Amino acid sequence: MTANSGEDSAANRVRMGRPGVAGQGRDRFGLTGTSQAFDPRVVAIRPDLADIAVAGTHFAPHYAAPMMMSGVLPAAVIRAAPSLDAEQTSELLFGEGFALLDLTGGWAWGYSLADHYVGYLAADALGAPIAPTHRVEMIEAMLHSAPDAASGGPAVLPLGALVMGEPEGEWLKTAHGYLPLAALVEVGTEHDDPTAMAEHMVGTPYLWGGRTAKGIDCSGLVQLAWASAGVHLPRDSDLQLASLGNDKDVAPTELARGDLVFFPGHVGIMTDHDRIVHASRQWMEVRVEPLADIAKRSMAKGHDVPISGYKRLR
Asked: How far apart are CA 113 and CA 126, in angstroms?
């Protein structure tokens, strides 16, 4: 079945329409030209179904309007296919929004609202949408059953998780328990040193598709660090590089703390003028090491251009 509808007919799939448009008669869609090429990582199209937002530019047998949901697990694995054996491509953190397009066989298909990344995750990882009030600012924060540090907790929330609640003294009361306000910042607060957030992750195991202290990849580390500063980057390193544009270019002789360095299939953050913090597949962990060492390894792998670009975000 598709989200927003308990029926499986083609008519109902199309008539769902965009939120606010359904019921106004827009039950047919036409392309103005040929169907455009698309990146399946960030454009929600399957052979049988597509996000209604692309109805004017991409063909699909059926279109669905997304149902807005939120993550209810500390971190839910997003996969390339609806199978536990499928590749992990990313993670949806607690409280992050998810646009649900289809729900079949215990698997939800749609995209994360944080970066529009498309994939499948377990249906029980999703719940009703929230209006977040706070963001977890520590590497991990214990969710307590009572406003007492000695109380047990039902979960540990990762850096970047979003929560909704009301302050009570030194605690934030949420529907799921209590979080220490010392571990949180209000939504909209911007960290003035995103590089420090990445440095706090040093020693974290490398995990393809990871976004937490349990495991993280290179683009996940960069995305998470800069999100704390209010800069929301795409999920993968090539998408991050493409999104920044030429106006973000910086000369290698002018590299400074916080600048991003892109390699073929890799990215890291400068900690000073010659060292970089990155989630390394070479060492299988987050490390700080000289930029020159990484460039040498890249060249040794046969890359003609060991470094793809240097970018300054602000």
From this structure: 13
Evaluate whether 67 touches 3 at the Cβ level (below 8 Å).
yes
Is 278 tagged catalytic? yes
Q: Which domains does the chain have, with CATH numbers?
A: 1-69+83-127 (no CATH), 134-186 (2.30.30), 194-311 (3.90.1720.10)
pTM of this prediction?
0.88
77 has a pLDDT exceeding 70: yes
CB atoms within 10 A of CB 20: 8
Catalytic residue among 58, 134, 176, 218: 218
Instruction: Give yes or no for residue 184 having a pLDDT over 90.
Output: yes
Residue 200 is a catalytic residue: no
Task: Examine the residue annotation and report whether 266 is marked as an active-site residue of this protein.
Answer: yes
Count each helix (H run) and each strand (E run) in the chain, helices first.
5, 24
Marked catalytic residue, from 116, 144, 266, 303? 266
> Of 9-23, 31-45, 73-87, where does mean pLDDT reach its minimum?
9-23
Q: Beta-carbon neighbour count of residue 232 at 10 Å?
A: 11
